UniProtKB/TrEMBL annotation:
Residues making up the signal peptide according to the UniProt record: 1-33
UniProt cross-references to InterPro entries, sorted A to Z: MlaA (IPR007428)
Protein name: Intermembrane phospholipid transport system lipoprotein MlaA
PANTHER family: INTERMEMBRANE PHOSPHOLIPID TRANSPORT SYSTEM LIPOPROTEIN MLAA, LIPOPROTEIN VACJ-RELATED
Cellular component GO terms held in the UniProt record: membrane
Keywords, sorted A to Z: Lipoprotein, Signal
Family membership: Belongs to the MlaA family.
GO biological process, one term: intermembrane phospholipid transfer
Amino acid sequence: MKTTTSILSLRGFALAVAAGATLLAGCATGPNANPADPIEPFNREVFRINEDLDKGVLKPVAQTYVDVVPSPARTAVSNFFSNAGDVYSAVNNLLQLKGTAALEDTMRVAINTVLGLGGLIDIASDAGLPKHKEDFGQTLGVWGVPSGPYIVWPLLGPSTARDTVGFLVDWQMDPLTYWHDSAITYSLAALRVVDVRANLLGASNVFEQAAVDKYTFLRDAYLQRRRYLIYDGNLPEDQDNKTSPDTGDTTVSPYHRFTPNWPVFRR
């Protein structure tokens, strides 16, 4: 009962944040603003700052990391962070009532932590256990929480009001944030950023060459990708290219397929 109450409280909080952000965005912009991106001028400026930071700092550091650190060591680092990610993927799969996926993620963490030297070696994948990437932003979407406006955050990049709440919750669930030594926590966070950026070097080069309007390209790709993930790739036929005029998100919650008698999970 206590767990159910906590889940409903989280959902209510996320709904309030998404609704409040949408109202504030509506007040801050004109009636002709993009419904999915009502604070576009602000977002574009943050995007420009992030791009300058990436070109001046993050990308050079990531490239140096790739040039200096041997590939096996980089793979071990990626596996370590991936193993930590399986922890909150398991929790989010459970919250989405995906019991099989939650069990598989839990088994992945156990196997890779015990037999894979703390997650440095991905034994679970070699054993045939699939990896499921879930986050609390997806969970909120499955519960029927609207996305709210598109937001570009400094350093963190593209998000929405809903995904911002999801990020904060996932951060609290991340086992790597529970070190008592803050120096270790910050060092791990910095290494994770470098690892992620290094893994995106190839994709960013294609992005820089292909995109005419990089901001619009990234925004549309992000929103479409998030919808795809919420539905696990199984978008309803009438929702494939439809977005809500209020939120830029799909207008029908996928959760209605599993909980038709639970009004609290409906929009």
